[in-house]
Amino acid sequence: MNLEAEKLNKEIPVPLYYQLKEILLSYIRKNQLNAGDPIPTELELCQIFNISRPTVRQAVNELVKEGYLKKIKGKGTFITEPKINQEYTHRIVSFNDEMKQKGLIPKTKVLKKRYMAADENVAQKLNLTVGEEVFHLKRLRFANDEPIVFLDSFIPLKLCPGIIEVDFVNNSLYSTFEQKYGIVVKRVVRAIEVDLAGEYEAKLLNIKEGAPIHYFETVAYNQDNIAVEYTISRYRGDKSKFIVELVNV
User: What is the mean pLDDT of residues 149-169?
Assistant: First the structure.
């Protein structure tokens, strides 16, 4: 695709910055550009399309926010790594397994593990009494050494005594459920929102404060339909795309 052959239509009620944004997105996709490849400078784009610099900057900034481009001060604007597609279909798949299926190398860092009394929110999600003891596990998870998501998980201690001793750097939560406690996760319920990263989230995920993140709340149920896990997950918005498959049953 040759950018110089593309034209903006100033006669239609579509903002010029948006037209340019769509052209640049097609340019990235159709030219099969690689992460790290540069795009033309703002000045070059102004000259190619005969538009103002603020218009170009708005188009480029939106693509930066959406994770397609990144700016490096003094060097230019470059293509980013593609987002990681994570499919939520009928199957329940662990983060590690999904990353491996995509040819990525998963890694887990345990930030905290402790026993605590369930507050009102945790107790409600897990169908417990306020004050009942739960296991709290905080993890940061990586793909190819890049932080992707951090998670706060809460597990009813009465279902998993001694779980604090498990090495969660090398063992997944769901494999621990099955192998150590005979718990098979049969169903999960997820609520999904878009949020903005606070100072703490931004530091952990290596993004700017105020950057968009995907906020998930998950409750997992075992073979007896008992809630066994409540997890709050915060995914980097610039690195993750979620695909949901629905079927007619």
Answer: 95
Question: End-to-end CA distance of the chain, in Å?
Answer: 43
CATH architecture of the domain 3-79 equals Orthogonal Bundle (1.10)
Average pLDDT over the chain, rounded to an integer = 86
Strands 69-72 and 76-79: antiparallel
> Which tokens in the block code for residue 160?
């998993």
pLDDT tens per residue, range 180-192:
999 999 999 988 8
How distant, in Å, are the alpha carbons of 68, 100, 204, 238, 249 from that of 103?
A: 20, 5, 24, 19, 32
Listed residue (53, 203, 54, 59) closest to 68, CA to CA: 59
CATH number given to 84-244: 3.40.1410.10
Q: Is the pLDDT of residue 90 over 50?
A: no
Q: What angle do CA 60, 210, 190 make, to 5 degrees?
A: 105
* Domain ranges, ordered by start, for the chain: 3-79, 84-244
Q: How many helices (H) and strands (E) does the chain have?
A: 7, 10
How far apart CA 186 and CA 191 sit, in angstroms, is 17
Q: How confident is the model at residue 93 (pLDDT cuts 50, 70, 90)?
A: low
